[in-house]
Amino acid sequence: MWQQTFSAEWLKLRRSRLGLVLAVLPVLSLLMGCANFVINQAVLQNGWYSLWTQVSLFYGEFFLPVLIAICCAYVCRLEHMNHNWNALLTAPVSPASVVLSKLGVVSVLIAGVQLLFVGLYVGAGLTLGLGNSLPPELPGWALRGWLASVAIGAVQLMLSMRIRSFAAPVGIALCAVFLGLGLYVAKLGYLSPYSLLTLGMGVLSQESLNVVENGAFMLMNMLFTAGFTALTVRGLRRGDVG
């Protein structure tokens, strides 16, 4: 059942321009970060790590959460048209399958974006002559960033299924980014999936997480993902959608 609904979600993305948006924003964030790095090379002298601070700041702190919100709003767009949620709820598919399929599609899309961004980062560093000594933390930054993105996707999917407007959930995501940044600065970064993204990707601090911190990071992501997914499934069963 889940495989069928997942395939159906992929079919809805055919001939859409979502892929263009997913590619443009990482490229834009990388160009902005590289420009800052080149301009401030007198101060930014830590090679690959300095470049990461610049490119991941734009990408992980702002563009990626917005991309996640756009993906979630897009996968719910068709159901919001002409009250198609009513037709979906009468179909022989479970609400859990619908929610998990949409979250699965968003997760795969964001995984592709993460891989694209890491590839762009490596290519930019090599072009700028930073050598071949990539940060050993890079795979962890990318993986933890994706895990936090899935948790954010669970939140945004709940919002997008309940709100008919395409723009409103994206606007909420922007507000949540600043709230998450505030929690991170206040040393409360584990309390929001948006600040978990900052923490996991090493956006503001490139220090590796220790065993306890990494365990807490994984646990909170699991709780956010499972909790908001369960709330979304419950809302769909009750017909509590836009």
**Annotation field: number of helices:** 10
Helix content: over 70%
Which structural category do the helix and sheet elements fall into? mainly alpha
Total strands? 0
Rg measurement, Å:
19 Å
> What's the domain count?
1
Q: How many strands, which pairing sense, and closed or not: the largest β-sheet?
A: none
**What would you call the shape?**
globular
SSE string, helix = H, strand = E? HHHHHHHHHH
- The first-to-last residue Cα distance is 24 Å
Provide a descriptive summary of the structure in words.
It comes from Paenibacillus filicis. Keywords: Membrane, Transmembrane, Transmembrane helix. The chain crosses the membrane at residues 20-39, 51-76, 97-121, 141-159, 166-186, 216-236. The protein has 242 residues and is mainly alpha-helical. It has one domain. It has 10 helices and no strands. The longest helix is centred in the middle third of the chain and has 33 residues, at 95-127. The chain is globular. The two termini are 24 Å apart. 40% of the residues are buried. The mean pLDDT is 88.
Brief digest:
The chain is mainly alpha-helical. The chain has 10 helices and no strands.
List the helices and strands and how they pair.
Blueprint: H1 2-12, H2 18-39, H3 47-75, H4 77-80, H5 84-89, H6 95-127, H7 138-162, H8 167-185, H9 193-200, H10 211-237
Helix pairs in contact: 1-6, 2-3, 2-6, 3-6, 3-7, 3-8, 6-7, 6-10, 7-9, 7-10, 8-9
Give me some keywords for this one.
242 residues; mainly alpha; 76% helix; membrane; transmembrane; ABC transporter permease; transmembrane helix
